[in-house]
Design a protein that fits this description.
Blueprint lengths: L1 E6 L4 H11 L4 E4 L9 E5 L3 H6 L5 E4 L5 H4 L8 E3 L6 H17 L2 H9 L16 E4 L3 H11 L5 E5 L9 E4 L4 H6 L3 E4 L13 H5 L5 E5 L8 H9 L3 E6 L19 E3 L9 H16 L15
Parallel strand pairs: 1-2, 1-3, 3-4, 4-5, 6-7, 6-9, 7-8, 9-10, 10-11, 11-12
Helix pairs in contact: 1-10, 4-6
The structure holds NADPH dihydro-nicotinamide-adenine-dinucleotide phosphate and oxalic acid (OXD).
């Protein structure tokens, strides 16, 4: 069995070593143009040339949960596209979202600013009933985040493509229920995959439907947000702030207004990192299952794009 590693942005050696340790029976190499055919590949944003040279490949294992960089490419028709299914990311996402939510709700930035000036000051406690949290995307990550937010007793809403019933979450589904979901939300968390349906979904019209004083936490993809729509809503006061982990262009270009806006907190696409041990164990397990002819989870539906 031959497996290629073809991942931009990842240091190849430790990954290849970990994959070899997990699958000692396999021949595992870093792909180079012109290399011979392989059975499987571990990929992250591979070049089109890689896919064009490997039409026989049985499955591509994406080193992330979001497959948007792959679905933009021409994929071999019979190749399975498999995403990471949690692999240690959901707990990180829960930490990140709860941190952003609580920092905003408890006004910790304002306290830090006071402390920096040597001020011992109190703010009026806010009521969590006034801060309903709405999670867009109730998949692997969205549901884990929902559980974590629930522990802090915020009112919780969720929105997904297909209807769901989740304990303690008021669930909405489909475009027809999006307006109702937004109207019931003050702190909006985006955990959608980037597809033709979700690109630009965070825009002037949708964000304006959040409750006054709304807050945006985007941890999914930069292209979910129409970036130029955000600042007028912040400056106009309808939105109180935003925490953004993902951007249309990454790294965020120098001089981009998000770097310095006082109501925007940015992090460099780090809310849920791909963890090597967990990812390799998951991928190796799935390759062995496929070799035994067994079904695996996390296979992307080419039609839905996630
Ligand atoms: P899942 O595929 O498990 O969940 C996706 C959710 O989005 C599902 O609930 C799905 O609905 C919903 N959804 C998809 N399309 C629509 C739509 N058109 N309208 C409404 N709901 C929709 O993905 P994960 O939870 O594993 O990951 C979510 C995303 O998080 C990834 O695609 C990636 O972009 C991002 N991510 C970001 C990271 C970071 O570091 N910033 C790290 C990891 C992931 P349904 O349940 O009905 O199918
Ligand atoms: C992912 C990511 O999709 O890291 O896993 O963004």
């Amino acid at each position: 069995m031959k497996i290629y590693f073809c991942c931009t942005d990842f240091k190849a050696e430790p990954w290849v070593a970990a994959l070899r340790a997990a699958l000692p029976q396999a021949e595992i190499e870093v792909w180079a143009p012109g290399a011979g055919p392989a059975d499987y590949a571990v990929v992250w944003a591979p070049p089109q040339a890689f896919l064009d040279e490997q039409p026989q490949i049985k499955a591509l294992f994406n080193l992330g949960a979001g497959v948007d960089a792959l679905t933009q490419l021409r994929l071999p028709a019979q190749t399975k596209l498999v995403r990471l299914d949690d692999a240690g990311m959901s707990v990180q996402m829960a930490e990140y979202v709860c941190h952003a939510l609580i920092r905003h709700f408890r006004e910790f930035d304002a306290y830090a600013a006071d402390v920096a000036q040597g001020k011992w000051s109190y703010r009026k406690p806010r009521l969590r009933e006034d801060f309903p949290v709405g999670i867009m995307g109730l998949g692997v990550l969205g549901q884990r985040v929902a559980r974590a937010v629930q522990a802090f007793e915020f009112p919780l809403r969720g929105w997904s493509r297909s209807p769901k019933e989740l304990p303690g979450v008021r669930c909405y589904a489909g475009e027809e229920q999006l307006a109702e979901f937004l109207a019931e939300t003050k702190v909006l968390v985006c955990l959608l995959p980037l597809t033709g349906q979700t690109q630009g979904i965070l825009n002037r019209e949708t964000l304006a439907q959040l409750q006054p004083g709304g807050y945006l936490i985007n941890v999914a993809r930069g292209a979910h947000l129409v970036e130029e729509d955000l600042i007028p809503l912040l400056d106009g006061g309808h939105l109180a702030g935003a925490t953004l982990d993902v951007f249309r262009q990454e790294p965020l270009p120098a001089g981009h207004p998000f770097w310095r806006h006082p109501k925007i907190t940015i992090t460099p696409h780090t809310s849920a990192r791909t963890l090597r041990d967990e990812s390799v164990a998951q991928i190796a397990g799935k390759i062995l299952a496929l070799e035994r002819g067994e079904p695996i989870g996390g296979v992307v539906d080419h039609h839905q794009g996630y």
